[in-house]
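As the next step, I selected for study one protein, both as residues and as discrete backbone shape codes, as given directly below:
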Amino acid sequence: GHWSSIYHQYRYWRKTGKWQKLMKIITANYDSEWLFIDGSVVKAHQHSTGAASHLDEAIGKSVAGNSSKLHLVVDACGNPIHVELSGGQVHDSKMAKTLIDSTINNQTKAVIADRGYDSSDIRECIFTHCAQSVIPVKSNSKSCNDTLDWYLYRCRHLVENAFARLKHFRGIATRYDKLKDSYAA
């Protein structure tokens, strides 16, 4: 079809929330036994900044320049079930509570993440949902990793594989959209 017809239909779906409804339908029956969380930086194109809105458009300054960060929750089969966007300077642990609260349920047995999520607040959030925390402690921590389930931690490659699959798409690998809603859709 004509590019403007496609764009207007895409924009209509974005504004009415059809993309989010579609995502909820697709992820309705996810395997919630294990949940994997992680974040990945996406370089923002130089023309993606400067949107004419006063809202937070999830583009931040970091060492590498303008960037956004995708925070992803993946189920036990490696399928993405929840995505959050933030500026590139936002640390992964700042979005962890939002990710956990939005996806964890009473069937979840473990939440697996890397050392960037090593925080007593995050562990407490996981424990309040009656799930096991599989997060290794940082090297400068006084506690140890003796009780860590290393098999589950090795399965964390599922979230890395999901990022690798998503970043095959040009529109996700580099952020060209000025608006957060457009990029999220």
Q: What stands out?
A: DSSP finds eight helices and seven strands in the chain. The two ends are 20 Å apart (CA to CA). Residues 1-30 form one domain.
